[in-house]
Write a structure and sequence with these properties.
The protein is α+β, with helices and mostly antiparallel strands. The chain has one domain: Gcn5-related N-acetyltransferase (GNAT) (Aminopeptidase). The protein is built from four helices and six strands; from the N terminus they run H-H-E-E-E-H-E-H-E-E. Strand 2 and strand 3 form a beta hairpin. The longest helix is centred in the middle third of the chain and has 15 residues. It binds coenzyme A. Coenzyme A (COA) binds next to strand 3, helix 3 and helix 4. Coenzyme A binds next to strand 3, helix 3 and helix 4.
Length: 146
């Protein structure tokens, strides 16, 4: 994800989320030392993105979304596989994330990726207020073979 991607990314974010990230959040995500993001394009149009950071041996997935027209086509699977491989190469052995407790699609996706629920954070989200599931997954050398 580069600065020139942000208009498309923000449009997609607004389409998908009830409490979307503002452009500044994506700007920070693309400009920090250990903060980065990947986009997926189809016909020069951004159809998905995944954002993350890492510190030491721990990585955190901060955002992930796929355009509704392109879901269940392994777009997010490809994105997360790439992210896990990259952070493994940077020395990470664990990835965490938060997801809305009612977001069954995303929870199913993360479970398919072997994330497990660690604990819950009440009132973590706004618009609507909702608790978060904190999920975790170990990252092993197998990621580098994907
Ligand atoms: C969660 C999300 C990113 C998944 O993207 P996707 O590209 O459709 O996911 P994939 O096609 O790569 O799915 C990979 C596997 O995850 C599981 N999965 C994904 N979506 C699922 C769903 N809605 N229901 C059940 N399982 C699901 C399946 O096992 C799937 O494999 P299969 O299609 O072969 O059965 C997408 O639904 C999305 O953008 N949701 C809205 C934004 C969001 O909630 N982001 C997460 C914020 S924490």
């Amino acid at each position: 994800m580069t600065v020139s991607d942000l208009p498309q990314v923000v449009m997609l974010e607004n389409l998908i989320f009830s409490d979307p990230w503002p452009e500044d959040a994506f700007l920070e995500q693309t400009s920090g030392d250990n903060w980065t993001a990947l986009v997926v394009e189809s016909d020069s149009r951004i159809i998905g993105y995944g954002c993350y950071f890492w510190a030491g041996t721990k990585a955190h997935l901060t955002n992930m979304a796929v355009h509704p027209d392109y879901r269940r086509k392994s777009v997010a699977k490809r994105l997360l596989t790439d992210i896990l491989r990259v952070v493994r190469k940077s020395g990470c052995d664990l990835m965490t994330l938060e997801v809305r407790a009612g977001n069954a699609d995303a929870i199913a996706f993360y479970k398919a990726f072997d994330f497990i629920e660690l604990y819950r954070r009440p009132n973590y989200y706004r618009r609507p207020v909702e608790e978060a599931l904190v999920m975790v997954r170990y990252i092993t050398d197998d990621e580098e073979e994907n």
